[in-house]
Amino acid sequence: MSRLPFALATAFLLVATLAAQQAPPAPKSGPYAAIPADAAKQPNPVKSSPESLDRAQKSWTMDCSMCHGKDGDGKGSLATDMKLKIAPLTDPNTLKDRTDGELFYLIKNGYQDMPPEGERVKLQENWDLVNYVRSLAKTQSASAQKP
Ligand code: HEC
């Protein structure tokens, strides 16, 4: 009988230790917080036009769609393979609180599991990509509003 409390305590300790080990890792803090205020405030010098979106499409297809999906739904094949949870860019809410400067910065420098676009694209093309990701949501809300 006197052993029971000991056994219980041991069991409790074991469970507590396992629980501590299995605690999910702290969420990755993306560089959003680290985006310099000046970069976040930078206005987009490239007007969103069919030409801009055309230029972005090539980079999107080569560098982005394998994760974000062709239409931005976040279900690209690489995202599935890597078990990434990616917010749909088709949902207008996903980027509504982001400035163009912030999007430019994270596309250029990477974000969480997303690799930086870096020097692969010219400055103008990086802004084209900002316009492109914005257009993914607009397309959807526009079509959602169709009667
Ligand atoms: C390896 C997979 C991967 C690739 C390739 C990738 N991304 Fe991402 N992207 C992510 C992940 C993961 C996140 C963070 C999760 C989220 O925000 O939904 C993210 C976030 C974003 C966001 C911010 C969404 C938000 O919540 O604010 C934008 C915009 C974006 N990506 C655009 C792009 C563009 C443009 C490209 C191509 C140049 C690209 N991504 C390439 C995985 C990827």
Account of the protein in words:
The protein is mainly alpha-helical and 147 residues long. It has one domain (30-145): Cytochrome c-like domain (Cytochrome Bc1 Complex, Chain D, domain 2, Orthogonal Bundle). The protein is built from 6 helices and no strands. Helix 3 packs across helix 6 (123-145) and helix 5 packs across helix 6. The chain is elongated and about 80 Å long. The structure holds heme C.
Sum up the structure in keywords.
Cytochrome Bc1 Complex, Chain D, domain 2, 6 helices, binds heme C, single chain, 147 residues, mainly alpha
List the helices and strands and how they pair.
Elements: H1 3-22, H2 37-41, H3 50-68, H4 77-81, H5 100-109, H6 123-145
Helix pairs in contact: 3-6, 5-6
Bound molecules: heme C.
